[in-house]
Automatic annotation (TrEMBL):
Keywords: Pyridoxal phosphate. One of its GO terms (molecular function) is pyridoxal phosphate binding. Residues 42-407 form the Aminotransferase class I/classII large domain. The keyword Transcription regulation does not apply. One of its GO terms (biological process) is L-tyrosine catabolic process. SUPFAM superfamilies: PLP-dependent transferases (SSF53383). It comes from Eucalyptus grandis. Its cofactor is pyridoxal 5'-phosphate. Belongs to the class-I pyridoxal-phosphate-dependent aminotransferase family. This is Aminotransferase class I/classII large domain-containing protein. It holds the Pfam family Aminotran_1_2.
Length: 417
């Protein structure tokens, strides 16, 4: 005891602040803090995937009505089952089964607080002593943060920009060993804007089977495909290797704040049950929070009643925005886009530092861009690709064009003479 103060025995857990710093939110917060308060222009948010604040991306009226009806019914102010209420799980099973060669049951569906809790659940379950997991590079950094928090070893396989960001399957095989438990794929791709073909996904499943691992298929951007390659869910190949599908209503319905996601087993052979994975998942969910019950209650109406015109409109907006983004990038010498985005809400571009004066890396580029132009772009280091940038095109067209023109002006000021 010093100066009369007790010798307190509690301490904060080391590592939590470091884990949060590598999330998209953590990095965007740092960039936002670097904005120039004296710049009277509106900030252009090209760094995150939440277009919900733009009127052109407002969610479907059927979705809004479903939530209002659920609240006003007075029937869903209660706690729900930890895996989710049965009508919602049944509706999601039916929704996903439309694209599969077999039928899912409600028991295959677990509801989660957005896709992030689904990630937390499966990585916690798989984090046995000595286990490792294969993550894509570039990828979504929340997987890295959660794996590190759970002491699950990470090994990174590359996505190949010159092949439309396909998985380097030879690299996957070289990385795996007897302690590898799973590989993660994100399709449609965050951060690459890629959409994998049926043939490539089948090869992914065959590789997983050969290695004796499961595939964690992050399909939070499912169906947001607007190029030549249609979206194919990984669950199609569940009979080859067990697949855990992670998804949500966040992106397709443009409601990330509603926090309704799912973790679904595509495993007609029952391997996940036999190995105890399903029992462990249930155990995790029993000690976790679950999505608001009234949002769960709205799910059947949201899935069944949303008009196809709404989905078509969103796809058209994203396609036009992706085209404009790709074309405008060609006008900025210091960034190069290896592949026009085919889906999702992002594109990866390579930064050519040799054309810039006084900028040493992607982080410095983004910090200076925020301060000088009030444009927020995510540095590639955040998603595992140093000296690349992730740009979102899921904003209104005028803001997108304005933001890219500001990046062009920024290059003009910092170009080597």
């Amino acid at each position: 005891m010093e100066n009369g103060a007790p010798a307190w025995k509690f301490r904060g857990k080391e590592g939590l602040s470091a884990a949060s710093a590598i999330t998209v939110r953590g990095i965007l917060f740092e960039l936002m803090a670097n904005l120039n308060a004296d710049d009277g222009r509106t900030m252009v948010p090209l760094g995150h995937g939440d277009p919900s604040s733009f009127p052109c991306f407002r969610t479907a009226p059927a979705a809004e009505d479903a939530v209002v009806d659920a609240v006003r019914s007075g029937k869903f102010n209660c706690y729900g089952p930890t895996v989710g209420i049965l009508p919602a799980r049944r509706a999601i099973a039916d929704y996903l089964s439309c694209d599969l060669p077999y039928k899912l049951s409600p028991d295959d569906v677990n509801l989660t607080l957005g896709c992030t809790q689904a990630i937390e659940a499966i990585l916690t379950v798989l984090a046995c002593p000595g286990a490792n997991i294969l993550l894509p590079r570039p990828g979504f950094p929340y997987y890295d943060a959660r794996a590190k928090h759970s002491h699950l070893e990470i090994r990174y396989f590359d996505l190949l920009p010159d092949k439309g960001w396909e998985v380097d399957l030879k690299g996957v095989e070289d990385l795996a060993d007897e302690s590898t438990v799973a590989m993660v794929i994100i399709n449609p791709g965050n951060p690459c804007g890629s959409v994998y073909s049926y043939q490539h996904l089948k090869k992914v499943a065959e590789t997983a089977r050969k290695l004796g691992i499961m595939v964690i298929a992050d399909e939070v951007y499912g169906h947001l495909a607007f190029g030549d390659t249609p979206f194919v869910p990984m669950g199609v190949f569940g009979s080859i290797a067990p697949v855990l599908t992670l998804g949500s209503i966040s992106k397709r319905w443009i409601v990330p704040g509603w926090r309704l996601g799912w973790l679904v087993t595509n495993d007609p052979n029952g391997f996940l049950k036999d190995t105890g994975v399903l029992k462990s998942l249930k155990g995790f969910l029993d000690i976790s929070s679950d999505p608001p019950t009234f949002i769960q209650a709205a799910v059947p109406h949201i899935l069944e009643k949303t008009n196809d015109d709404f989905f078509s409109k969103i796809i058209c907006i994203l396609r036009e925005a992706a085209d404009i983004c790709y074309e405008k990038i060609q006008e900025i010498p210091c960034i190069t886009c290896p592949k026009k985005p085919q889906g999702g809400m992002f594109v990866m571009v390579k930064l050519n530092l040799s054309l810039l004066e006084g900028i040493k890396d992607d982080q410095e580029f983004c910090l200076k861009l925020a301060k000088e132009e009030s444009v927020i772009v995510l540095p590639g280091i955040a998603v595992g690709m140093k000296n690349w940038l992730r740009i979102t095109f899921a904003i209104d067209i005028s803001s997108l064009e304005d933001g890219l023109e500001r990046i062009k002006a920024f290059y003009g000021r910092h170009a080597k003479k």
